[in-house]
């Protein structure tokens, strides 16, 4: 009955949010809608509160406590900051499940969004301070145990949770789902602006919140490719990157679980894997098919979900001391995009233990500025289709226009090739202009020449001398994909993709070569057999 009431409360709140005015940092009034919401919330055991965040900024929050809480004992605490642009009802289903299993749960709307006060600071210092203020409030107003504090969240909530763990030693366990460790390496990888990701985040921020003046300046400089402000943007991103504070996180000793999707078009998995390797405390890395936050999405509706099951097991062990075996399992847990079960590894380097190199011989020249037909798809949509329907972006490799796309193909493989980890491109480029962009794609090519996208990544250069060769080393986004026997791998490189901002002057050309002294190649990591 309490679970059903949670759904009722969520539905009422969602309706109110959809039909109400634009978000404003004002307290609610005793309207009919609020009365209905309060009734449903009371039936579900939900308490809606205002918490004073950093500088007194009001944070709208909800609290759930175990049904048997009678003031005689304390319970572990889990704090859940909301995702970017999401209302405070986001975690109600998971919060109810946690409360029913013996946790105090406080979920709050991140500052600048919906009815919380302040401006959107993009996990800046005020957001980190807010997390500690919420913990302070919970310890003072709920039966939460100060020695057993955890934080979790999806996307924006994940980033804030990791940053908070670096600054607040009370946090003993974190579950960071579909988040970022390095903000620059996420949306500016290869020195290339991830256009669709930035536009989606920026648009959602304006629709559901109040961007800070600083965010408006950074976003304008980012989207307009203002290179004079590049260092300012990088410094801004580093301040908001958990990887910057890895030493603090390790010193505080929080147990960190990271979860992400192979096809996350906002926070690609590479930066999480790199961060995971630098953690020295208890840690776990889980990677699954999907796009940004799609691996966790069904769990937010209360449906069975592997990611949230792992999260509860992680907290049960590290906050309750449950002997559930999570500490004895292989800490790196991945699921291939093309095959069934999970695979366990002792560390990230063991995921792609074997290497197969594809030689990139000869010389190929391409014109710039036109999408050849090879591209990474559409943010959120394409990799979600791959997750649920096994339909990744496809292209006919034989029909790609060779004047706009350089193509290299392997032989047909006699056995399945289980690609695991990070594919790396090493090549020599000669450009006719000082700036430019290239995008590399790896395809699984079947007998009819249809290529299914395995991975991709962009690369941008500035300040090069026209006509002078230079080396490019590019990591494609990490993945797990099984290439069937009888298929081949194809590397395609072009210069434009709707996912990214390209920097190719009109009429420019790029030439890819393989000098005898430094041959070009594609390094493909494979699972150990």
TrEMBL record:
Pfam families: Peptidase_S15, PepX_C. Keywords: Hydrolase, Signal. It comes from the Bacteria. GO terms for molecular function: carboxylic ester hydrolase activity; dipeptidyl-peptidase activity. Residues 312-522 form the Xaa-Pro dipeptidyl-peptidase C-terminal domain. The keyword Nucleotidyltransferase does not apply. Residues 1-24 form the signal peptide. Transmembrane segments: none annotated. InterPro entries: AB_hydrolase_fold (IPR029058), CocE/Ser_esterase (IPR005674), FrsA_esterase (IPR050261), Galactose-bd-like_sf (IPR008979), Xaa-Pro-like_dom (IPR000383), Xaa-Pro_dipept_C (IPR013736). The keyword Hydrolase applies. NCBIfam families: CocE_NonD. Belongs to the AB hydrolase superfamily. This is Acyl esterase.
